[in-house]
C-alpha cells in the first residue's frame, strides 16, 4: 500500500480540524484540549528557525566571501521587495474600490472583538520610520536579537560573522565546519518535526473554527471573498507575470511548495515553513547564498499578502463607516503602508498592528478593526500563503537577475518532490 504523502496528511488534518471545530462550536473544552497540541507544534518550529537562519547564512557568506557581490545581491533584493509590495498595496486598493466590500455592511449585526492587546505595539509602531528600520537592523546584542527572534538583526549579524570567517582563511575552517554541522542537524530535526505537522494543523484549525464558527463569516462574507479573490488574482496574474518575465513557471513553484503552502495556510504562520522553503528553492536551482539571504529578509520586507490585505482592509473600514476616501487619501495610505509594513515581521498579529498604526494617520476610525478581528484568523491564513509564494519567487527572481540560477535543477526537483 502506497504511503500517504505529507501534503495529504496535512490536508486531512485540516479537514478533520474544521469538522471537529464545527461540531463542537462554542465549546471551550476544544481549546483546552487542542490548543496545547497546536502550541507545541508552533514552538517546535520557532525553536529551529534561528539556528537554521544563522548557520545557513554564515555558510553561504563564508563560502562566497565577496562583500561586493553580497552588497549587489542585497541592493537588488530590497529594490525588488519595494516594487512588489507597492504593487500589492495598489492591487488591494483597486480591489477595494471595485468590489466595495464595506458598502452596506450593517455594523449592528457584527460582533466586536477586543483589540486592546494590539494597541501598545501599534503605538510604538506609529513612530517607526524607514530610517529606524535600517538603524534597528544593527543589533547592539546579537544574543538578545536571537532571543527576541529579531530576524533582520539576526541576518545582519550572520552576514558580518560569515564575512569575518571568510577573511581569516584557514583559521575559520573549524568554525565553518561547526556551522555546517549545525545546519545539517537542524534540517534533520526539521524533517522530524514536520511529521508532527498534521496533528498541529488539526489542533490549530479545530480551535479556530470552534471559537468563531462558520456563521461568523456570513456578515463579512463579501470581505472574505474579496480578500481571497484578490489574493488568488495577485498570485496567478501579478506573481505569474513576474515569473514569466524571468523565465520560470509559477505553477512549478506552487507544485514544489504544496506541503508548505497547506501548512502555512492552516497554521497562519509563515515561520513554520521557513526552513523548508530555503531547502526547496535551493533544490529548484537557487544558490545557497541567495536563498539564505533573500528568504529570511523577505519575512520582514516582502510580505505581499499582508500589504495587499492591509490596503484592502483599510478601505473596507472606511466604506463601512461611509467615509469617502479621495484619490489623495488613498495615495497617502499607500505611502504610509510602504513605511509601516516594513521590518516588523516578528510582531504577533503583524497585519493588525500595522493597520492600527496606519488607520488613524489617514483619518479612518481605528475602532473599525474590532469588527473584523473575529475573522482575522481566516484572512490571515490567505495572506500567509501569499507571503510564502512571494518570498519563494523572490529568491528565484534574484538568482535569475544575478545570472546564478541553475535552471537544469528545476524540472528534476519538481519531479522528485511531487
UniProtKB/TrEMBL annotation:
Keywords: Cell membrane, Membrane, Symport, Transmembrane, Transmembrane helix, Transport
Top-level taxonomic group: Bacteria
Annotated GO MF terms: symporter activity
A single GO cellular-component term on record: plasma membrane
Membrane topology value: Multi-pass membrane protein
Residues passing through the membrane, by range: 7-25, 45-65, 77-99, 151-169, 196-214, 226-251, 351-373
GO annotation (BP), single: dicarboxylic acid transport
Compartments in which it is found: Cell membrane
Keyword Transmembrane helix: yes
Keyword Hydrolase in record: no
Listed name of the protein: Glutamate:protein symporter
